[in-house]
Amino acid sequence: MAKFVVPPKEETAVTMTIRIERDIQEAYGKLAAKTNRSRNEVIGMALRYALDNMDVDPKDH
Fold first, then answer.
1. Cβ neighbours of residue 32 under 8 Å, at least 6 residues apart?
2. Do 25 and 19 form a contact (C-beta atoms < 8 A)?
3. Which BP terms in the Gene Ontology apply to this protein (predicted)?
4. Going by C-beta distance under 8 Å and a sequence separation of 6 or more, which residues neighbour residue 39?
5. How many helices and strands (H and E) does the chain possess?
6. How many CA atoms lie within 13 A of 19 on its CB side?
């Protein structure tokens, strides 16, 4: 019988502090409650979406 092996957890998340407007924080709090996810998880999903769908104006570089 094969042994049950639990590999070490790979921690890929980091802690970051940002300042945002209160209404944005409240909107993410409501969305988190509505979707049964943490606010942190919803914000992380939004940041990933923004990175994956963002274009930089070539005139700015």
1. 38, 39, 41, 42
2. no
3. regulation of DNA-templated transcription
4. 25, 28, 29, 31, 32
5. 2, 0
6. 0
Six token digits for residue 54: 């963002």
Q: Please, what's the b/e burial string for 23-42 (b: 16 or more CB within 10 A of its CB; e: otherwise)?
A: eeeeebeeebeeeeeeeeeb
**What distance lies between CA 13 and its chain's CA centroid?**
9
Q: What is the mean pLDDT of residues 43-58?
A: 94
Over the stretch 22-49, which tens digit does the pLDDT of each residue have?
Answer: 999 999 999 999 999 999 999 999 999 9
User: How long is the chain?
Assistant: 61
Q: What mean pLDDT value characterizes the chain? A: 93
Q: What pLDDT shows up at residue 25?
A: 97
Query: Considering the entire predicted model, what is its pTM?
Result: 0.73
